[in-house]
Write a structure and sequence with these properties.
Radius of gyration: 21 Å
Order of helices and strands: HEEEEEEHEEEEHEEEEEEHEEEEHE
Number of strands: 21
Distance between the termini: 35 Å
Strand content: 35-45%
Strand order of the largest sheet: 1-7-8-9-10-6-5-4
CATH architecture of the largest domain: 3-Layer(aba) Sandwich
Oligomer: single chain
Number of helices: 5
CATH topology of the largest domain: Protein Transport Mog1p, Chain A
Number of domains: 2
Largest sheet: 8 strands, mixed
CATH superfamily of the largest domain: Mog1/PsbP, alpha/beta/alpha sandwich
Helix content: 10-25%
Length: 339
C-alpha cells in the first residue's frame, strides 16, 4: 500500500463529507512542544501565516496536485505526512471531526484514541491520534489541528501498525512539531457566533449564492463548510457544502450516488445533466431516495473545479417536490462561481 496515496485520498474527502461530532477520547491538557534542532528547511504553505520546517535528511516533498495540500514521504520508511491549509478558518475541533469522518468512509470503525491540547512553537494546537484501517491496513494517524484569523492548518502523519516503532513515531512527531503559526487565534467557541446575511450567502472569495430571504431562512450552524436553510412555508430544505479540495468534476455523479446508496441501498439517480450556471459548469442531479425512512427527492447543483468543491442540495418529501420545485430552482440559479 502506498501510504502517501492513502493519506491524500482520505484527506481529500474532508472537503465534501458532512460534519458530525467525534467522540471525545480524553480530557484535554496543555503541553509544550517545539521544533527540533534538525528542522532546517522552511516550506511555505498556501496561507502565509502557516509554515512547516522540515528535516530534509528524513523527508522528501512530493508533488501535490491538490490545492492547499503539501505531501511528504519518509526517506527510510513507508511513512507519509501531509499539511493542509485553507483560508476558511474552521476551528481545530471541527477539522479534527471532519478528518475522522474521512477515515470512517474507508473504515466505519475508525476512532479517536487520544487527544490533548499542546503548545507548539508558542501556539496552541489540538493534537489527536486516530486508529483506522486504510485500504485494509491497520494504521495510526497522528494530527495537529489549528484554526485562527488567517484560516486553518492541519498536519497529518500516517504509520501502519506494523511500522509503529519508537523511531518512526519520533520522526512523525518531529515533523508535526515543525509547524509554525503567526496568525491570531480564534475567540472561544462560546463567544464566536455565526451571523447570517439574509439574501446573500458568501461561501468564499469566489463563490456566493443570492436567494430570496422572504422564502428561505438561514439557520445557525457550526458545521465546517456547511450552511443550512429552511423554507418559510413548509418542509423544504437546502444544504450548502463547500471545501477547497475535491474529486474530478466528471466523477461527481457516481460519487454522489454511491454516497446516497450507502445510506439507502435503493437510492437511484433519476436525472443527470451538465449545466452552465452564471458561467460555471455544474452537474444538475436529482435522486429518488429515503432519508430517515422518509421518501424524498434530493436535487442540486454540484461543482468541483478551480474554486474548490460546492454542493448545493435541495430536499423535500417526494409528494411535495412539485410544490417547491420553482423555489428550489431559484435558489440553485443564484449560485455564482468565479474561476
Amino acid at each position: 500500500m502506498d501510504i502517501r496515496i492513502a493519506l491524500a485520498t482520505a484527506t481529500v474527502l474532508t472537503a465534501f463529507l458532512p460534519y458530525s461530532s467525534a467522540v471525545t477520547a480524553s480530557s484535554l491538557q496543555s503541553r509544550l512542544y517545539a521544533k527540533g534542532p534538525t528542522s532546517k528547511t522552511r516550506i511555505k504553505t498556501s496561507v502565509p501565516d502557516f509554515v512547516i520546517l522540515v528535516d530534509e535528511k528524513k523527508w522528501k516533498q512530493e508533488k501535490s496536485e491538490t490545492p492547499g495540500m503539501l505531501t511528504f514521504v519518509h526517506l527510510n520508511s513507508d511513512l507519509g505526512t501531509a499539511v493542509l491549509t485553507d483560508r476558511a478558518g474552521f476551528r481545530a475541533e471541527i477539522m479534527r471531526d471532519i478528518t475522522l469522518e474521512a477515515f470512517r468512509s474507508d473504515d466505519p470503525n475508525a476512532k479517536i484514541i487520544s487527544e490533548e491540547e499542546r503548545i507548539v512553537n508558542g501556539r496552541q494546537v489540538l493534537a489527536f491520534e486516530i486508529s483506522a484501517k486504510v485500504e485494509g491496513v491497520p494504521s495510526k494517524i497522528f494530527g495537529y489541528s489549528h484554526g485562527g484569523s488567517s484560516g486553518h492548518v492541519e498536519v497529518l502523519g500516517m504509520i501502519p501498525d506494523t511500522l509503529l516503532t519508537k523511531d518512526n513515531i519520533a520522526d512523525v512527531t518531529e515533523f508535526l512539531n515543525g509547524l509554525e503559526m503567526s496568525d491570531r487565534e480564534f475567540p472561544s467557541s462560546a463567544s464566536r457566533e455565526i451571523i447570517p446575511q439574509p439574501g446573500n450567502l458568501l461561501i468564499n472569495s469566489k463563490v456566493s449564492i443570492k436567494y430570496d430571504p422572504t422564502k428561505w431562512k438561514q439557520e445557525k450552524t457550526d458545521q465546517a463548510g456547511s450552511s443550512f436553510f429552511t423554507h418559510t412555508s413548509g418542509d423544504a430544505y437546502v444544504r450548502v457544502l463547500s471545501g477547497r479540495l475535491g474529486p474530478p468534476f466528471d466523477a461527481l455523479p457516481d460519487m454522489i450516488l454511491a454516497n446516497a446508496q450507502n445510506q439507502d441501498p435503493n437510492a437511484k439517480l433519476i436525472f443527470k445533466e451538465k449545466r452552465k450556471v452564471n458561467g460555471a459548469d455544474v452537474w444538475f442531479l436529482k435522486l429518488d431516495r429515503e432519508v430517515n425512512k422518509i421518501p424524498m427527492i434530493v436535487s442540486g447543483y454540484y461543482y468541483a473545479g478551480q474554486s474548490g468543491t460546492v454542493l448545493v442540495i435541495t430536499m423535500t418529501g417526494k409528494n411535495l417536490y412539485s410544490e417547491f420545485e420553482k423555489d428550489f430552482m431559484d435558489f440553485l440559479n443564484g449560485l455564482s462561481i468565479s474561476e
